[in-house]
Design a protein that fits this description.
mainly beta; OB fold (Dihydrolipoamide Acetyltransferase, E2P); 9-stranded mixed β-sheet
Length: 110
């Protein structure tokens, strides 16, 4: 089950360049619903009660124009808990990740 994340009051900064997500056999991993390739990147998340954190977030399709240190717009962020071989954690997925100051010419070209 995916749990929506309340984005109000949060600020996101790119902590890494986007990279294609690989499966266990080191092949590009595709989204089960759309068939599009998954991409992942680290986001520095500011505005959390206990201070900043770094979250690895996946998104369908390559986030265009994202550079390390750039402020980002994140939409449709969800969290999902997982457990495998005695390990557990939280994974994050977004519907959209793009530069916060995306220019109108970039929008028109997309």
């Amino acid at each position: 089950m995916r749990i929506p994340v309340d984005l109000s009051g949060l600020t996101f900064i790119a902590g890494s360049d986007p990279e294609g997500v690989l499966d266990m056999e080191r092949r590009p991993r595709a989204d089960k619903e759309t068939g599009e390739l998954l991409w992942g990147l680290d986001l520095v998340v500011l505005g959390l009660p206990d201070g900043a954190e770094v979250w690895n977030v996946r998104v369908v399709g390559e986030p265009k124009g994202v550079e390390v240190g750039a402020p980002l717009r994140v939409q449709g962020l969800t969290a999902m808990t997982w457990e495998m071989d005695g390990r557990h954690g939280v994974s994050f997925r977004a519907r959209l990740i793009e530069p916060l100051n995306k220019s109108k010419s970039t929008v028109a070209a997309a």
